[in-house]
Design brief:
With about 350 residues, the chain is of the alpha+beta class. It has four domains: about 80 residues, Ubiquitin-like (UB roll), CATH 3.10.20.740; about 160 residues, Alpha-Beta Plaits; about 30 residues, no CATH class; about 40 residues, no CATH class. Helix content is about 25%, strand content about 20%. Strands 2-1-5-3-4 form a five-stranded mixed beta sheet, with helices on both faces. A three-stranded antiparallel beta sheet has the order 10-11-12. The chain has a two-stranded antiparallel ribbon with strand order 6-9. The longest helix is centred in the last third of the chain and has 19 residues. About 30% of the residues are buried. The structure holds FE2/S2 (inorganic) cluster (FES). The site of FE2/S2 (inorganic) cluster has 13 residues, from loops.
């Protein structure tokens, strides 16, 4: 593929012929605000926050959706650009509740940040009718408040293009437009194909989609971010635990093309099933049954006991009298070591894995 040269804010940039103005600006670290754009999703071009000015014609162009042409000269910050971005923010705000103080997304809302940056204190078009849409929250995982939705369509695209669930789409037109599941029901409705992967919440730039279990548990700036591997299967998805007071509040996505889940995908377990970490009934010490009752013992005692029992069975009845069952929650390496131990040390080929149950 050939390259072409464009000039962005006076800097010459060489880019692929298929690049957009936003790609060209990113290449030289010129920041352009976006709301509906995501590098892993198809283009939508709906928010128009990313407008830039063509230095020759004076036209405003949506940088995320405009392909570069050779010799183009672009300015990313001019009075005209700032005025247009402000106007677009005012239009969004005119159809958005003004409840930042109690909104779950406060501090993590792209709209709030841009409104602050562009000093849009009051929309000149009046404010929306309050409670225009019903909040959908009949499921245990995700609250869906269409009143806060800016129709950027990132949730719809990630659902359709990455997760391939086809659970949500746009319905209605004009001021009644919104994102919904079929028949405008809750995400957890019987016929809904939502699998509660949480990808829509991760993509949402406002507080329209939020995690129910995290409600009231902490603001974005209070949460410590810990990158880790999901404990639920051997795929090794990378996730971001968001922790407050040493307790997991929610699980966020990490976007990295080198990860097995490059667009931050998780399953419902990886996203929501972390109560076990602090559960009072969680086993933290080995148990041995003595006189019919389980008793907590040290790891040394448990290992000695197991080795002695397995050795006795092997001696009396041979290795084939022993079978081993391992777990999908272990890593591939752990499962490999387990079968090696069963075959090499105990002399049995009766090894299985819970994924085949
Ligand atoms: Fe370009 Fe929304 S980010 S139109």
């Amino acid at each position: 593929m050939g390259t072409i040269t464009v000039t962005i804010d006076g800097q010459q940039v060489e880019v692929d012929q298929q690049a957009t103005l936003l790609d060209a600006a990113n290449k030289v670290d010129i920041e352009i605000p976006t709301l509906c754009y995501h590098p892993d999703l198809t283009l939508h071009g709906s928010c128009r926050i990313c407008v830039v000015e063509d230095a020759e014609s004076g036209n405003l162009l949506a940088s995320c959706a405009t392909p570069v042409t050779d010799g183009m000269k672009i300015k990313t910050i001019t009075d005209k650009v700032i005025e247009a971005r402000k106007m677009n923010l005012e239009l969004l705000l005119s159809d958005h509740p003004n409840d930042c103080m109690t909104c779950e997304a406060d501090g993590a809302c792209d709209l709030q940040e841009l409104v602050y940056e562009y000093d849009v204190s009051e929309p000149s078009f009046g404010l929306m009718e309050e409670g225009k849409f019903e909040v959908k929250n009949e499921n245990p995982f995700i609250e869906f408040d269409s009143n806060k939705c800016i129709l950027c369509g990132k949730c719809v695209r990630v659902d359709n293009e990455v997760q391939c669930s086809g659970a949500i789409d746009f319905i209605e037109r004009g001021f009644s437009s919104k994102v919904a599941v079929p028949f405008d029901q809750d995400l957890g409705a019987d016929f809904s194909s939502c699998v509660f992967c949480g990808q829509c919440v991760e993509m949402c730039p406002t507080g329209a989609l939020t995690y129910k279990p995290a409600k009231g548990q902490g603001r974005e700036y209070e949460l410590e971010k810990v990158e880790t591997t999901c404990p639920y299967c051997g795929v090794g998805c990378q996730i971001e635990l968001q922790v407050k007071d040493n307790k997991i509040v929610q699980v966020g996505s990490i976007y990295d093309e080198d990860h097995p889940n490059p667009v931050g995908e998780t399953c419902v377990k990886g996203r929501f099933a972390y109560d076990f970490v602090d559960h009072p009934e969680r086993l933290t010490k080995p148990l041995i049954k003595k006189d019919g009752e389980f008793e907590e013992v040290s790891w040394d005692e448990a290992l000695d006991y197991t080795a002695q029992k397995l050795g006795k069975i092997k001696e009396e009845d041979g290795g084939e009298a022993i079978a081993g069952l391992t777990s999908a929650r272990c890593s591939n390496e752990e499962n490999y070591i387990f079968q090696k131990f069963m075959r090499g040390a105990l002399g049995t080929n009766s090894v299985d894995h819970c994924a085949r149950l």
